Amino acid sequence: MRKIKKGDDVVVLTGRDRSKRGTVLNVVDAEHLLIEGINRVKKHQKPNPAKGTTGGIVDKEMPIHVSNVALFNPVTKKADRVGIRQLEDGRRVRYFKSNGEVVDV
Q1: The domain made up of 9-80 is a member of CATH 2.30.30.30
Q2: What is the DSSP letter of 48?
Q3: Domain spans, the chain
């Protein structure tokens, strides 16, 4: 089970976008995430007539390493670490380490 999933609200811990919040758009691989509005770069893009895209300089979100983000805890309004525990009925759920509250029920 992953500690950070698509649709989670996260806070960036390090880098030029430190302390910014965003929503996870996509889990690229086991260690990289694509976050809305975070790690935006200017990319020089060639035109592709087959796909109908125009060339030029475009703003694009690039993947960020999962160790550089933490899940946002709405109760404490801060970034928080996440753990995984097993409930009595056998389901595995994520919980915030600071207050023990379950992230997804």
Answers
A1: yes
A2: B
A3: 9-80
User: Tens of pLDDT along 39-59?
Assistant: 999 999 999 999 998 999 999
Confidence of residue 105 (pLDDT cuts 50, 70, 90): low
- Please give the torsion angle defined by the CA atoms of residues 27, 31, 37 and 38, in that order, rounded to the nearest 10 degrees: 180
Cβ atoms < 10 Å from Cβ of 18: 10
Paired with 23 in beta bridges are 9
Q: Is 66 helix (H, G, I), strand (E, B) or coil?
A: helix
User: Please, what sign has the CA dihedral across residues 60, 74, 86, 88?
Assistant: negative
The answer to whether the CB of 39 falls within 8 A of the CB of 64 is yes
Residues 6+ away with beta carbon under 8 Å from 45: 53, 55, 56, 57, 58
* pLDDT single digits (tens) 5-41: 999 999 999 999 999 999 999 999 999 999 999 999 9
